[in-house]
Amino acid sequence: MAHQSEMSKSLCFGSVCRGSLLVFLCHLVCDFWLLANPGMAMAVDVPFIPKQILIFGGNGFIGTRTSELLLQADHNLTLVSRGNWYWDSAYLVRSHVSHITCDRTTKIDRCSELTEFVQNSEGFDAVIDFSAYHPQYMEDALDLLKGKVGLYIYISTDSVYEICDKNHTEPSLETDAVRPSNSQRRAELEAGQSYANFKLACEEVLARYRSEGYGPPYVSLRLPDVVGPRDSTYRWWIYQLWMRLHEYLEKKVEVPEKYESQPMSLVYVEDVAKTIFTIVQKKSKYASSQSPEEPLIFDQAYNLALQETPTLLELLKDIREELNLTESLEIKTSKQADTIRLFPSVEMGPINIAKAEKLLDWSPTDYKTVVKETVAFYENAIKVEYFDEPRKYMMRTMESYFTSKPYDVVRGLREIYKITFGQQRDEL
Ligand SMILES: *[C@@H]1O[C@H](CO)[C@@H](O)[C@H](O)[C@H]1NC(C)=O
Ligand SMILES: *[C@@H]1O[C@H](CO)[C@@H](O)[C@H](O)[C@H]1NC(C)=O
Ligand SMILES: *[C@@H]1O[C@H](CO)[C@@H](O)[C@H](O)[C@H]1NC(C)=O
């Protein structure tokens, strides 16, 4: 009985209930346990005031994990998105938050539900923006939210360095994100780089609103390629499954020659989510007054990445090792222009993380652990029935790009993972 009670206790006060598919059952156990142990429910004497948090996105890769952490701390989340729910975010997030449907590619005043919600709200301790890909979205959001935001956290990218002239060859520093003053050079760099251009422009809007006195305190987080569980770009998983099924696929596992020696930055989804969570926790009020230690970290951009900077070839070899395929699978390099390359998505090389280490206590997970945990997640995900959509996407990808004999993919999945899906259902 004592043992059972301990278990219930950890269930109720840990994070298990929230993330579980058995939320209902879980709460039933918790309610019973609290009923039997009334002291526990009253043990908290500092009144807890949930933070009001508005999230643009919050249903994708980093967003889902971030929302989960904020929900575990009992904050009040309102998510604004087009309404797609990736992986199991519908279970993990949707059922615990308020959701407003809004497509940011249309003018924000068309999103009447959002504008009404903001107008009726007293304010937000934090806004977390995962989905601003154009400066117009940023301006629309800041205009709508004027005077109501304690802190604006913008998820930016290391791609911003692609359109800037770096005057050194070391990893990019935050201060390197300066557009060339020569307009011809600027245009040259921006050609074909609208993603980088628009993301940097969003950062610039945030900074301008702030310096002109009507924008909120902000933090821009510049992320390289993000890896970890529930990646909605599937890039890591594609490499992993390619290696795992290599005997059944025609396309040989290979990387472009250039990426044999080019180091890259990566960041772990878990580390990013935790850092966003910590920054939100630090911000105490949505009034614009700040406590003395706060201003130091705000109103600037930070690079976040793992300490290690593997090459693509090293990354694939490390995944291969985790899969126990080192003996049986050779990874080649190729000079062919059409060789698949899913990482890195930038050409400017790694980023320097010293600033985040100093000011944000950035202390990323060790690279080997990231590889281990991520590989384990996808090895399991392929067998999880409620990941139906991601699994089908993966199967179609293997069938379309890695072999001309789709049935071999089905056979590989059956023989390696002992699973049958897709094909069987199609026959019904
Ligand atoms: C969360 O905030 C919304 C909007 O202010 C409010 O209607 C709702 O009751 C809050 N929920 C909780 C659990 O505090
Ligand atoms: C390099 O660029 C940075 C940022 O644009 C600038 O602050 C710095 O003075 C430059 N250094 C040199 C040696 O040109
Ligand atoms: C690799 O081998 C280890 C040790 O035998 C085992 O625990 C692990 O499950 C294997 N991994 C895979 C993906 O087969």
From TrEMBL:
<dbReference type="GO" id="GO:0005829">
    <property type="term" value="C:cytosol"/>
</dbReference>
<dbReference type="InterPro" id="IPR036291">
    <property type="entry name" value="NAD(P)-bd_dom_sf"/>
</dbReference>
<dbReference type="GO" id="GO:0005996">
    <property type="term" value="P:monosaccharide metabolic process"/>
</dbReference>
<dbReference type="InterPro" id="IPR001509">
    <property type="entry name" value="Epimerase_deHydtase"/>
</dbReference>
<protein>
    <submittedName>
        <fullName>UDP-glucose 4-epimerase</fullName>
    </submittedName>
</protein>
<dbReference type="GO" id="GO:0003978">
    <property type="term" value="F:UDP-glucose 4-epimerase activity"/>
</dbReference>
<feature type="domain" description="NAD-dependent epimerase/dehydratase">
    <location>
        <begin position="53"/>
        <end position="284"/>
    </location>
</feature>
<dbReference type="Pfam" id="PF01370">
    <property type="entry name" value="Epimerase"/>
</dbReference>
